[in-house]
Write a structure and sequence with these properties.
Elongation Factor Tu (Ef-tu), domain 3, seven-stranded antiparallel sheet, 5% helix, 3 helices, 376 residues, mainly beta
Length: 376
């Protein structure tokens, strides 16, 4: 039910209603755009930001299909609308800045704005397409959210996302510091630090203060000679000389650190080919180590844009989609590793994190339905 102010109800009973349609768009980065079909700016209180009034600029930025609302919880029609405002650029659309942006449509009495709003529709921007005269986008009804799967469904792939609380793999562990309390990492469990807000909090993986392409973890266990490896304790007063070979070890005040490939590194383009392909000769990780990861640009024409990595080999990156602006030699970026959500390839081999795999990798597949006993 739409709860209208008394003044709006009175205005709707009149034979002449001074209405204007308004659109409010809030992107995931916090940017808010406001437009109206009226021929002059309209100052309207923003319910999403208390004590804030936003000016809705006259601009037919959106041309929508018919708005449809239903009284039950079924999903309303998927509306397509065009984006034609100068404030909505091709660069931002292609760069994904409007992905999942919240769009709200409502009507107002432009003659008496104190009468409040008539809510029309609220949803999320879905797929965006480029047309001859502008851009068009799907508006996904907000009621779709309550129809999503809430319970876990049997899955061969991991349901967790890399670096989340279920996965527990650390994306950016704390920098090494003196007197840092260290907990031994349990084999097959990339447990997260207990508290990274304190420089003396318990951790099991650290980064060197000068980046060298590796992280270092304290892994408890037994060495080749049967002697215990110390994976817990307190770091010393002087930072150790870190090895630069995967699997290399160094002792720090009784703690044995083991080198693992860093999961997030900064880099610079040394050779670019087009908007999807570039090379960085300093990245010598194994083939596809950065596959399914994310590249975020720190400088250049695409600064602050992020794109998923499709392939990585011998320092060469291929992105899933072209960046909105051309790449250039010298552009700096930050890349984080990715995960294919498969048990053996990534969870066990790449991250040694099989204990936290959130899936059922050993359930029989469809081929088992037609299998028969082997008489041999």
């Amino acid at each position: 039910m739409k709860d209208l102010l008394p003044g709006m109800k009175t205005a709707l009973r009149r034979s002449l209603f001074h209405h204007a349609i308004c659109w409010r768009v809030e992107r995931t980065d916090g940017t808010i755009l406001t437009f109206t079909s009226h021929d002059r700016p309209l100052p309207i209180d923003d319910e999403g930001s208390p004590n804030t009034t936003r000016t809705y600029q006259p601009n037919n930025a959106f041309s929508t299909s018919a708005l449809e609302n239903k009284v039950n919880l079924s999903v309303s029609n998927i509306n397509t609308f065009s984006l034609t405002s100068d404030d909505i650029t091709e660069r931002d659309l292609i760069g994904g800045r409007y992905d999942k942006a919240v769009v709200e449509f409502f009507a107002v009495d432009w003659l008496t704005l104190a009468n409040g709003k008539i809510p029309l529709l609220k949803g999320f921007i879905g797929e965006v397409e480029l047309g001859d005269l502008g851009f068009s986008a799907e508006l996904r009804d907000i009621s779709q959210v309550i129809q999503q799967q809430l319970l876990k469904v049997l899955s061969l792939e991991c349901r967790a996302d890399l670096f989340d609380t279920q996965c527990k793999v650390q994306q950016t562990p704390p920098l090494w510091a003196a007197a840092l309390v260290i907990d031994a990492r349990i084999p097959k469990d990339a447990q997260s630090p207990l508290d990274t807000s304190s420089p003396t909090a318990a951790a099991n993986t650290v980064r060197p203060t000068v980046e060298n392409g590796f992280y270092f973890e304290a892994l408890g266990g037994v060495g080749s000679g049967g002697s215990p490896i110390q994976g817990a304790g307190i770091t010393g007063g002087v930072e150790p000389t870190w090895p630069t070979v995967e699997g290399g070890t160094v002792v720090d005040n009784g703690i044995t650190w083991t080198a693992i490939v860093a999961r997030q590194l900064d880099g610079t383009i040394t050779t670019f080919h087009d908007r999807r392909h570039f090379e960085d000769v300093t990245k010598n990780q194994a083939e596809d180590y950065w596959k399914y990861g994310l590249v975020t640009w720190l400088s250049g024409a695409n600064v602050d844009f992020t794109m998923e990595v499709r392939d990585f080999k011998a320092g060469g990156f291929t992105l899933w989609e072209a960046m909105p602006e051309p790449l250039s030699n010298g552009d700096s970026y930050r890349v984080q590793s990715g995960c294919s959500k498969r048990f053996d390839e990534d969870c066990v081999v790449k991250y040694a994190n099989g204990h936290n795999f959130d899936g059922e990798p050993f359930i029989p597949g469809q081929d088992s339905l037609s299998a028969y006993p082997n008489i041999k």
